[in-house]
Amino acid sequence: MRLFYLKYENCQTLSGKLSWSHYTELLAISDDLVRSFYEQQCIQDRWSVRELKRQKDSALFERQLYLPDPEVLKQELRRLLEVNDG
After folding, report:
1. Residue 42 contacts residue 19 (beta carbons within 8 Å)
2. What's the distance, CA 43 to chain centroid?
């Protein structure tokens, strides 16, 4: 709870779209920028906690830094989803 307060002290209200389990997983990320990225992705793409863990473990943020075009990122994500679903 202390870590939660320290990381989100300026936030009046938290997103009702994320569960406590999401925030627990997000708090494990020490870099504020990276944490914010994953938090926004969770909200925007409606990730489950399981999906958040999977994307975090596969270093989505770091991989995105090396992609020159957002369309390339979308294609890569689609490919990864197809591989994991099939």
Report:
1. no
2. 9
